[in-house]
Write the structure tokens for this entry.
Amino acid sequence: MTTTGQPVAVELESPPPPGPAQPPPRRRFGSIRLRGTLTAAVFLAPALITFLLFKFIPMGRAIQMSFHEVRPYLGDVWVGFDNYTRLLSEAEFLTAVWQTVILAVGQTAGSLIVGIVLALLLEGSARHLWIIRTAVFLPTVVALAVVAEVWRVLYYPGEAGVINSLIGWFGLGPSEFLNSSDTSLWSVMAVGVWRGAPYDMMIILAGLAGVDRTLYEASAVDGASIRQRLWHVTLPALRPVFAILITLAAIRGLRVFTEIFLLTNGGPNGSTEVIMTLIYKLGLERSELGIAAAGSVILLLATIALTLAVQIARRGRPSRKAKR
Amino acid sequence: MIRGRPRARFVTLALAAVLLGTTAACGSGPVQTEQDPNAVLEIWVRKPPDSASAATAKTLADAFTESTGIPTTVTAIFEDFETKIQQAAAQQDLPDIVINDTAQLGTMAGQGIVREIDPDQLAGSQDLTPGSWDASRTVDGKTYAVPFSAQSFALFIRKDWREAVGADVPTSWDELQALAEKFTTEDPDGNGSDDTYGYVVPGSTKRGYTSWYYSSFLWSAGGDFLTESGDGYTPVIDSAASVAALQWFQDAACDGTIVPDAPTLETSQAHPLFESGVAGIYLTGPYMMARFDENLGADKYEIVPLPAGPGGQASVLAEGENVYLMAGSANEAGQQKFAEFAVSVEGQTIGMAGDSDGNIVRLPVNSQVAISEVRQDERWQIFDEVYRDSSRYVPIVPEWTPILQNSAEAFNTIIADC
Amino acid sequence: MSRTERFDTALGFTSSRHPVTRILRWGVYVVCIVVFAGPLLSLLINAFTPVSNPTSLTLIPDTVTFDNFTRAFDRGVLGYLLNSFFVVGFGLLAQILVSLSAAYALARKKFPGMRLVLLLILSTMMLPEEILAIPLSLVLADVPFIGVNLIGSLFGMIIPVAAWGFSILVMTEFMKEIPVELEEAARIDGAGEFRIFISVILPLCRPALGVIGIFGFVMIWDQYMLPLLVATDTAQYTLPLALRTLRSDPQVGLGVLLAAALLALLPSVIAFLAMQRQFMKGLTSGAVKG
């Protein structure tokens, strides 16, 4: 995902494993390569050790839990794949998967597009832009509990509701928004885009900061219009940024939970049910930790599969190299 | 994934071995704890930290310490209380006492984190109302908690609105529905715009709110979730009476007498709708009085028992809180003493906290306690009468939560589908 | 002046002097503010009203009161705020250092197993924390290999957030963009790894540093599950715990939640403004960068 088509480690045949715990095997290496690996290990150690302790070990335990009926005080009971089959046979499961995918795709794409537009419009070093960018960024720093309340007010389904009054001027509505199964998923998605776009905007802005200004000048000399400049200079330069944004947003999208939990809790009529709200209902709310764990292992596997698929698909394409 | 290079696979395997190796030690069986009759009792209450009710819990614990000499600590946790319990159980470091909803009984007993209780061994157990004991027994007839507080629900009605539309206090469902319609259409707040509704309904599926709210109406209409048959239960949610009751619910949602955001409304979002004058009829508990008195004004609303429904009588949801004696305590004798103290006349009186909003005992479970002697506010009597005369707990089944959730999903669909 | 400004930004929109563009520009600004900040601010104004109507937004409250703030303070919000500051201060420092260091290895070093490491880092973001809560609490109570109990200590809320996949990956992506020639020049001059890292790579990462600083701040500031697991006493609570509690507390109204949220918002805005400085430096240095 992040290794934009660069065949970094792929050609190496017998490399020593990384990680601080593993002493390098006794073999003859080019000293530079060995030194590079050692340096990498040292620099990676803090992150990997922290992840090992606070992410991988709990993850391992969660995987273990998924094969048990978890009873902390009485001792766990091995149930094999029971938790998985119970979850997969749940009628709502496939719907939830489908809705999760729609939501993830919609929010990722929507946030990215709005984020690009915002970044392009608000790029610059003038003081007033600081303030405007801060205002735009507010949705990201306000507590989610408040964001949910804001949107409940905006979406209020009566004719007097804020958005209903607005669209009323154009002769539309009133819409039920969150409270009808026809519109709820889109309404939730709009909240996600509203909150996600400023996120993307910030990263794209940082990416724009790194674009070589002489290229702009050169394209102007060549007589390119601003549109051509955007298309041929700016967007290609931002490609690695987009790659990481899409990867991260997709991962975030698949495990979306709190927004929906606060806005609709999966309702009405299950129309906004996503994988995590279902796991919460079937597992955590009923204190069935084994089932919750099984659900999240499925989620984990699906996310990893998706990530690898994207990686392989990208590797298959002709490598476009960033300047290096 | 990594093109099957042997090294990478080795790393993966090694990592997996580390993970499994470090986790296999978890999840051993229950532990026998050495007993110490003077060990500190750790008490958890499901109340907001630093709130008036958390302070009352502290007062109760202090009075207990004074009378028995057993030291206590009180921890108030509100959101994600169950997560904290799960955590404590996983660490095998449970608190000694937990005061929590009666609805948690089945789950906690099933996980083996609460101790079984012999009511006959509990001093003062005969003073507790028989109904309250029902909420402390699991389906196999064993008792896993000591009842501590009870509550029921009644209609909160905007009195000024009712007078403005010239209606009387509703005494039947038809009158109630007529009142709701008048609230919706006759501009009871007189602001000139059509922005009011009849009922506040917390109809979100969260924590099963839709079902929790509507169960009182369902039962009063003669419907039910389950009925006892032989050794077990059979669902009767499709009986004629149940269907009629739900039809009534759907009609109210569709003709606009229920607030339009009901299908996603949580209780915390529902309260403001009543106090800010969006809707004028709200079936809720006595714990809301203090807040509505302050934010709306005690003179602006009245509390009325739910009228008898088509089922011939009112049958309102009863619930409450239990004292749970948690497993693995180092002071089992102290746990029992605390439970005895909590349900005693003294303990219950402290917990009721007069008329203040800091009550942790809503209605006393001890029949020796006269509400009127502790509380001047007569509205409590209404809740007490409802609780004694026309309320019922949810049926005792192995676990109510799945039924609550599934029915909440179904009811939620019914009111969202117009 | 106008020559360089024209090429300062991709669109040239914010620096154009054309009168039509100017008007259009301010139109765009107003729309942006109204859409993204407007609803939030008009709801937060309800922190000053005794009873807020949850069906409409106001800009001017009927009656102004500070009761909601008083109540929020009664609920210990000030103490939670201090805890949040402590956690975010040390947490963010650790997180930035760890991210920089890991990203340096991932972006600038060639080593075997890199893809695996990247996948592992990505995988840390794939499981929702609600699921990991119980296993994580076991780890916190008895950290493997070290045997320390972090439950009940603010450090238990700090150490686990020191490594965050998002920061590492974003930083890596930006570091890759730094021309390798600069590094090689320094190496030829005899600079060691840490010298190169500190004096060559780091200064060029400014915009990215701003990004991970801002997002890291928000991430740690919003942490909910971890403080919930670690805190054994309300004295250790952080603000998000208080916000969730106030949200569902039937004894207080929406106003108290909004008051607390408003208090929580101010530090974030200040942090955001401060970190934007990194951006600005990046923006201007980017213009001269060859």
The domain at 154-316+399-416 of chain B is CATH 3.40.190.10 (D-Maltodextrin-Binding Protein; domain 2). Chain B has two domains: 41-152+318-392, 154-316+399-416.
